[in-house]
Design goal:
By secondary structure, this protein is an alpha/beta fold.
Length: about 260
């Protein structure tokens, strides 16, 4: 089951889903709310259902872990995450560093940890071994979009992770934000197609003369409301980094241009 918790997340989303997996004994995935009333409500649901044996994180962003330490204190459950996530959280006690492919058995269920970096370096999805349904964290969204910010994300790696999820294979996707996505592979292909479209627009906006990120954003994201351009510019930069890595573009002292 999922418990929608109010979090300071990226609009239009206003909640992060905390998934409780297992019968009797269970794990909680992404208890993201920093708000005491939301934390108390989650503890009450857990106590009604059984015993919490672990708290699993998909990644280190605040709207996914804002209540993790409070939940650990209330229940005694340890916090588990990928090693790269633990490295981003030196003040948080990560009791177990999960590795790609590790299977977590709890309450009659088996979840496989799948390393899917790109949005965040330590991002994990958790795939139900019986159904292929996948707790997707911030790989996709049922509401809003997924921001790839070059300060901690990497576009080429994110696209490779989407491809990997298709190949697993993946069933339904249970995102952190928004409703369940029944056609998981279809949504993953949609995301890849959208990012490819955007990369083409970014490339088409480039020329032989250097242009600033703001100038490029106004062209490449002309189909996006201008009030969203500050966020769009972060994704634009991730696309530009990929184009530089692909040998298509260059970032010189005066701006971005075709190579």
């Amino acid at each position: 089951m999922s418990v929608a918790l109010r979090t300071p997340t990226l609009p239009p989303a206003a909640h992060t889903a905390c998934y409780l997996v297992g019968a009797g004994e269970m794990v909680a995935v992404d208890p993201g709310s920093p708000f005491p009333d939301q934390q108390a409500a989650l503890v009450e649901v857990i106590r009604e259902r059984g015993e919490l044996v672990a708290i699993l994180l998909t990644h280190h962003h605040g709207d996914h872990l804002g209540g993790a330490q409070a939940l650990a204190a209330a229940t005694g459950a340890p916090i588990w995450a990928h090693a790269a996530t633990a490295d981003e959280l030196p003040a948080m006690p990560i009791a177990r560093r999960l590795v790609d492919g590790e299977v977590i058995e709890v309450g009659g269920r088996a979840l496989r940890a799948v390393h899917t970096p790109g949005h965040a370096v330590g991002h994990l999805c958790y795939r139900d071994e019986a159904t292929a349904a996948t707790l997707a964290g911030d790989m996709v969204a049922g509401l809003g979009t997924i921001l790839i910010d070059p300060s901690g994300g990497h576009m080429a790696t994110y696209l490779a992770s989407l491809e990997r999820m298709i190949a697993l294979p993946t069933g339904a996707l249970l995102p952190a934000h928004g409703p369940v996505i029944a056609d998981g592979p279809g949504k993953l292909r949609e995301y890849i197609a959208h990012r490819s479209m955007r990369e083409r627009r970014v490339r088409d906006a480039l020329g032989s003369a250097p242009r600033s990120a703001a100038e490029l954003c106004a062209v490449a994201y002309a189909d996006t409301p201008s009030f969203l351009w500050p966020l769009a510019e972060r994704s634009l930069l991730a696309h530009l980094v990929k184009l530089v890595e692909d040998g298509v573009a260059v970032d010189d002292a005066s701006g971005w241009r075709l190579l």
